[in-house]
Amino acid sequence: MWTTEHRRVHKRKALRYPSDLTDAEWTLVAPLIPPARRGGRPRDVNMREVLNAVFYLLSTGCQWDALPKDLPPKSTVYDYFSLWRSDRTLLRLHQALYVQVREAARRTAEPTVAILDSQSAKAAQKGGPQSTRKAMTRARRSPAASGTSSSTPSACC
């Protein structure tokens, strides 16, 4: 339930963008960001701003080219996003925050209940994807698609 206390804590009007991290959020997330690799040039990009840019993209659904100019360059943001996705940093970040939220709500870290709808349960009993009716998923074909001629020469014989 939204109380005046909750509204005050979750107020995002003072931030540049609603998706930006607050100082409290950054203190939770900063230890989960991998350090710079050893050797090579030292990291000169502000990781908080990179994460703000990733959250901006995810929350607005904008294109990479539409990233605001006051955030890091799109190539930098994309490189970190791609790296974090492939090395599972984003997954670890999500799981760590998920556990913290559950524990703050005085719940166990792992959920103890799962909800399945009846269609998912029936599909699992019958063998999963093989049980879907082919008649309902058949692709439409044009009359010309049934012809055997082709405009490209075949490589047979």
Structural write-up:
The structure is a single chain. This protein is an all-alpha fold. The protein has a domain of 44 residues. The protein has seven helices and no strands. Helix 3 packs across helix 4.
Gist of the model:
The protein is mostly helical and 157 residues long. Helices cover 44% and strands 0% of the residues. The protein has a domain of 44 residues.
Quick tags:
mainly alpha; 0% strand; extended
Major sheet summary line: none
What quaternary form is this? single chain
Distance between the termini: 74 Å
Secondary-structure element series: HHHHHHH
- Estimate the global geometry from the Cα principal axes: extended
Radius of gyration: 25 Å
Give the mean pLDDT.
78
Number of helices: 7
Q: What is the share of helical residues?
A: 40-55%
Number of strands: 0
Q: What percent of residues are in strands?
A: under 5%
Low-confidence sequence ranges: none
